[in-house]
Description:
Elements: E1 6-11, E2 18-23, E3 29-33, H1 34-38, H2 46-68, E4 75-87, E5 90-103, H3 109-122, H4 124-128, E6 133-140
Parallel strand pairs: 5-6
Antiparallel strand pairs: 1-2, 2-3, 4-5
Amino acid sequence: MPVRTADAxxxxxxxxxxxxxxxxxxxxxxxxxxxxxxxxxxxxNPEELIGAAHAGCFSMALSxxxxxxxxxxxxIKTTAKVHIDKVGAGFGxxxxxxxxxxxxxxxxxxxxxxxxxxxxxxxxxxQALKAVDIKLxxxxx
Length: 141
């Protein structure tokens, strides 16, 4: 299996420094700072990237679970809200809220919820983030 890479560089002190992050394949490069991470400043932050990874992974996992159950999805859209809060002397990712809306012809809401829960459990990013409280809201379009 392939090994995926990304890199980041930080320049300066924590509060007034600046950094940049880049996906290994070059598909994304983003600037980040203390302000973009802990305030409302311009730029990206590691939590957005974790959210993108989680939303993408969950959507693919749900597509696989639905397909295995004989229900081909027309579309799956997932948003991840990653919460970073003050924890003790530092900060911590305390919660991730996955909000998913899918169009799956012929599937009941009850069956969809069961399959979405299964996908959440099986998603590799969910597994990697087990220490974080992950909430799932999943509904049919």
